[in-house]
Amino acid sequence: PESFPPLRNEAAVHVLRGRMKGIQGHCNSCYMDAALFSLFSCTSVLDSMLFMPFPRCDRNVQGILRDEIVNPLRRTGFVRASSVMHLREQLTDKGQCSSFTNAEKDPEEFLNLIMQQILGIEPLLKLQSGGQKEQECYCYQIFMDKQEDLVVPDVQQLVERSFLSSDLKLVEIPSCFIIQMPRFGKEYKMFSKIIPSLELDITDLLLDSPRECCLCGDVATLEC
Questions:
Q1: pLDDT band at 161 (very low <50, low <70, confident <90, very high)
Q2: Where is the Peptidase C19 ubiquitin carboxyl-terminal hydrolase domain (predicted)?
Q3: DSSP 154-206
Q4: Is pLDDT above 80 for 75?
């Protein structure tokens, strides 16, 4: 199948900036539009979703995702709402949920449906909480209480504090780390802005990872 590489640097700015760019919204599609744009516009980490013949893969849905959404986005910087609706109609048929075409969903619900049930991809993350049995998932949603010292946080701060408050560790380095920011509603926003961290240091988030002492710099033997 025809394919286009993800947009990078000056090409990304040239193709994606301006009016009538991005994924056109329609009928509460914002959660899916934002997720698809984040996953495919400027990175190839999940391009296996577009091409790999996974054991339980629905090739029709895979073709719609590749040919009607990702390729147009990378080629012209614009995806019509009708293309996303075509995908939503297929998800409605496959997911035993009649509201994918008209209701707003949680992005995690969308990712779990398309990655697990429709494409049959293995979970991307392995997490462990407080020494309990490890859990597998496709993305991590940041949960945390309001903290007064965080006015305009970056993603690094949010991930570290969320892991700390939930006593979570990554069992292994993930091939892809999809992070969902704290939920924003119409009435309440925990943060007015979040600064993207262009790199993410997961050293302190890894289970049994050697780390340096914050005082002397040698390998640490205790964790506060």
A1: very high
A2: 22-202
A3: BHHHHHHHHHHHHTEEESS--S---EEPPP--SS--S-S--BPPSS---GGGB
A4: yes
